[in-house]
Design goal:
With about 475 residues, the chain is α+β, with helices and mostly antiparallel strands. It folds into 3 domains: about 170 residues, FAD/NAD(P)-binding domain, CATH 3.50.50.60; about 110 residues, protoporphyrinogen ix oxidase, domain 3 (Orthogonal Bundle), CATH 1.10.3110; about 110 residues, Alpha-Beta Complex (Polyamine Oxidase, Chain A, domain 2). Helices cover about 35% and strands about 25% of the residues. The protein contains 17 helices and 22 strands. The strands form 6 sheets. The chain has a 7-stranded mixed beta sheet with strand order 8-7-18-19-20-17-21. A hairpin with a 6-residue loop joins strand 13 and strand 14. Helix 11 packs antiparallel against helix 12 and helix 12 packs antiparallel against helix 16. It is globular, with a radius of gyration of 23 Å. The two termini are about 30 Å apart.
Length: about 475
């Protein structure tokens, strides 16, 4: 298969996840606004678009095989939904019942109020909580009086940063399980500067982390006013609605699925790039690689081996999500909250469990209960290779141990995602600088995706938008 010839400069986007789709959308939008004429091609190796975003209906249940929402604090996703005419489809999480629990010594204990970026901002809610021991609470109370870390120490692991600022128990019972749920990460290797940039920035700005967080909490309260902002937002028909709507809006982009790009080579005299796939090839004036970072490295190995090595050195972990639907009358307990996270010291296969029925009630059937359980990540990457039956058995056994759920589900669904969760290891910021330095030598080549500056949907959308703007500028400069 070959792409049709064109006299216009061609921009090729490799990867049809949310980053690549956003790049195509913003390319069309920006090209139209600036009058730049170009041909846009989006190539995806799978038979569908959306990457890890996958929404399914099963009877009266709405299932998400990947992310089920996005953070409202990062505006890129909400702004894109509004541009696409999805404003009336945006649904906030049911924050009147927002509670999260931590499994501690076999018991679910409620997270204290006042958490910001996975750490406490107020001492008294923690002292009233039974999550920390008395010695852990006393260690936390000393935190406001500790001097800031030296700038030379700023790229510490999350383990070093949190335990030195707040104590070991805050790390083990708060930060580690919450970050494992988001990143699937090993906090001993995770970079505090890359995974918790807000905390680093606050400490550097105010000279004291506790004083800075107090200011930040006050500013957030001022912005919210009398109408509290919900933490999570989703779409009425699932996150997959964002993918399908984006696809419908791509009126100037040629979308090709089941097309696995093999490699990218430079054209002679710096006149663009040669993109090859099985059975076809094309010339591109600009290329946006919107794949996971290691896959991008493999594509670029013949173009720039040092760049490829940096990209392939960004670790990724697999994730397994298990959806379980129940009849409420047989479920056996009320769900007062959004779910629970599991610290690694509890030695469970479960990393977290979302009580979807509470978080987004409209996703459950009338009289139904819907749960989403998370396994894998850095703790247990091998589980992605196990059979569905074994994964479900493990999940049900541990739910019985944690929640005393003994009812049999109406149905289950297992979603596997190989190497989908990047880990921003210590040194990640330096690696990004090295990648940027290598890219500077390849005009017209750009990266987008979750492997660089944020793992959430808003981050990916922003990365696609940034790459689109740079690609269009590159094409304009070649005219």
């Amino acid at each position: 298969m070959s792409l049709p010839p064109t006299h216009l400069p061609r921009i090729v986007i490799i990867g049809g996840g949310i980053s690549g789709l956003a790049a195509a959308y913003f390319l069309e939008k920006m090209a139209g606004a600036t009058g730049v004429k170009c041909s846009i091609d989006l190539m995806e190796s799978r038979d569908r678009l959306g990457g890890v975003i996958l929404t399914e209906r099963c009877g009266d249940f709405l299932l998400e095989g990947g992310p089920d929402s996005f953070l409202s604090l990062k505006p890129a996703a909400i702004e894109l939904c509004r541009e696409l005419g999805l404003s009336d489809q945006l649904i906030p999480s049911n924050d009147d019942r927002r509670k999260t629990y931590v499994l501690e010594h076999g018991r679910l204990r409620e997270l204290p109020e006042g958490l910001m970026f996975v750490v406490p901002t107020r001492v008294w809610p923690v002292f009233r909580s039974d999550l920390l021991s008395l010695s852990g609470k006393m260690r936390l109370a000393l935190s406001p009086f500790l001097p800031p870390l030296k700038r030379s120490e700023s790229d510490l692991s999350v383990t070093e940063f949190i335990s030195r600022r707040f104590g070991r128990e805050v790390l083990e019972r708060l930060a580690e399980p919450l970050l494992a749920a988001v990143y699937g990460a090993d906090v001993d290797k995770l970079s505090a500067r890359s995974a918790l940039p807000q905390l680093i920035a606050i400490e550097e700005k105010y000279g004291n982390l506790w004083r800075g967080m107090s200011h930040a909490r006050g500013e957030t309260g001022d912005r919210k006013g009398s109408r509290p902002q919900t933490l999570f937002v989703t779409l009425r028909n699932g996150i997959g609605e964002l993918v399908s709507t984006l696809e419908k809006h791509l009126t100037q982009t040629r979308v090709v699925t089941r097309c696995e790009v093999r490699r990218i080579r430079p054209e002679p005299q710096g006149s663009g790039y040669h993109v090859e796939w099985h059975g076809g090839e094309t010339h591109a004036a600009a290329v946006i690689v919107a794949t996971p970072a290691p896959a991008a490295g493999r594509l670029l190995r013949d173009l720039d081996a040092p760049l490829a090595e940096e990209l392939e050195a960004i670790p990724y972990h697999p994730s397994v999500i298990v959806a379980l639907a129940y009849e409420r009358r047989t479920f056996g307990r009320e769900l007062e909250g959004f779910g629970f996270v599991v610290p690694r010291k509890e030695k469970k296969k479960l990393v977290a469990c979302t009580w979807v029925t509470t978080k987004f009630p409209f996703r459950s059937a009338p009289g139904g209960v819907l749960l989403r359980c998370f396994l894998g990540g850095a703790r247990n990457p091998a589980i992605v290779k196990e059979t569905d039956e074994r994964i479900v058995d493990t999940t049900l056994r541990e739910l019985t141990e944690v929640m005393q759920v003994r009812a049999q589900p109406l149905f289950t669904r297992v979603y596997r995602w190989e190497d989908c969760m990047p880990q921003y290891s210590v040194g990640h910021a330096g690696r990004l600088e090295a990648i940027a330095s290598r890219l500077a030598g390849h005009p017209g080549l750009f990266l987008a995706g979750n492997g660089y500056r944020g793992v959430g949907i808003p981050d990916c959308i922003q990365s696609g938008s940034t790459a689109a703007s740079a690609a269009l500028d590159s094409v304009r400069s070649q005219r």
